[in-house]
Design goal:
By secondary structure, this protein is of the alpha+beta class. It folds into 2 domains: 143 residues, no CATH class; 60 residues, Winged helix-like DNA-binding domain superfamily/Winged helix DNA-binding domain (Arc Repressor Mutant, subunit A), CATH 1.10.10. The protein has 10 helices and 6 strands, in the order αααβββααβαααααββ. Strands 1-2-3-4 form a 4-stranded mixed beta sheet. Keywords: DNA-binding. GO terms for molecular function: DNA binding.
Amino acid sequence: MSFEHDYEVFLKIHLHKYSGEKLRRLKEGHGHAEKLFLQHVWWPAIGHFEHLHPEYEVLDFKDGTRYLDFAYIRPPFQICFEIDGYGPHARDANRHQFADNLMRQNHLTIDGWKVIRFSYDDIQDKPRRCQQMLQQLMGRWFGDGQSPIQLNWKQKEIVRIALRSSVPVTPAEVSSRLGISDRYARDLLHQLVEMDVLLPASGTQRVRSYRLNNTAQPFYL
């Protein structure tokens, strides 16, 4: 299924489940930044919305309620995902609000939550880095029924090159960056394809460039 289709189903499910303030916040608070996170980071890295809850309600340490941008509830962990923008609201936060936000996160941690924060700028400008972090998180904390891929230092460096590049990686680029022969560069790239870390981006019988496989199991840098 496409992102737009599954995203619409995801929202409808929670709109049907929620009521009162939770429903209002989902309708009004789930905006551009939250959808951007799902579209540019969560969907390419995970491929589904199972166990994910938007505008999740938690008890506040002041005996009130607060809402998490997203909660991922899957034993043995519960994870809070927050999207932080650097807009006028963030810049104008006073000392009291700053301290209050830190105390809120401390209490979430005490209550057993793991808290992961992404900046809006990283989601927009560096989505693949965010996807990689999310995949590492899932592999380390949940395993997903498979062992994380172990890469040697040359393979890791190729992944770093791919992460930082806006275009597919070529054997010539890998050869130049690592100071190795073109043939050895092709061997390393082929190994990463066999491990599902990379996918051919151009060429059929002879692959000319490669891109990251964002839906593969996690690999650690």
